[in-house]
Design brief:
Order of helices and strands: EEEEEEEEEHEE
Structural class: mainly beta
Largest sheet: 7 strands, mixed
Strand content: over 45%
Shape: globular
Number of strands: 11
Radius of gyration: 13 Å
Length: 123
Amino acid sequence: QVQLVESGGRLVQAGGSLRLSCAASGRTFRNSAMGWFRQAPGKEREFVAATSWSGGITYYADSVKGRFIISRDNAKNTVYLQMNSLKPEDTAVYYCAADSMIQRLSRGYYDYWGQGTQVTVSS
């Protein structure tokens, strides 16, 4: 069982940067692949990024590749999403998710998810 709590979302101007955090609790965090998804109003939830349990493997959606960086600190039970060069189309609720396999996360499947944090990018 993994519990996830996201934070760090706020209003930011286009071109700016933001770092989201996801604090996890539960004994299986260190064995879990972690990921970020987002959902904009009127749209389906979409995959953003994922990292393996060790952090050695990462996947990114094409729309964020080169701008976003996912990382994790297993000592702190926390996963991060560094978002740079933000665009208005990045506006969404961002959700943290956990699963046993990074491949499942990259395909939109996950066992656990958080309540989300709102990111709004103004033009």
